[in-house]
Amino acid sequence: MNWARDNLESLPVNRSVVVAEVQHQGRGQRGNQFLSQKGGLYISMPLKPRMSEGWEKIIIQSLSAHTQRWLFLEFGIEATIKAPNDLLVGNAKIMGVLVETVFWGNELQSLILGAGLNVAQKFKHAKLPFEAVSITELTGRDLDPREVLPSWLQEWDPWTEGWL
Prior knowledge:
alpha+beta, single chain, BirA Bifunctional Protein, domain 2, 29% helix
């Protein structure tokens, strides 16, 4: 998200996706550190919604619902949404979402949607402060996050049309 925010002027809003293999300053809700190991898919998207109020919740809920659908259709994974910004399989986190606002003066310039999806990491013996799981662990498939990205983004495209 930092790179996307720092380079916002040069990125086409509503059509740019910044992808990282790892994040060195990943963060979650309320400033918590976000663990981003290699094997995950970490994206930032600068967006400028048409609506003025309530857009943060709508964006997080929409992304979560469409990712939940995509996980089931692509991999047979049944995930649940844990409000406000996580997707879980059982008690284990498979995705987290964060929205950051960018103001120039009093005007909303953009918001940056950040999402981290656990694709190919191995969490089984990891010492984490929470449970986490990846698509690879659930399906046994050896996946490359870069190969998963196009179908994940394609799932989102239809829902962005109405509010961007």
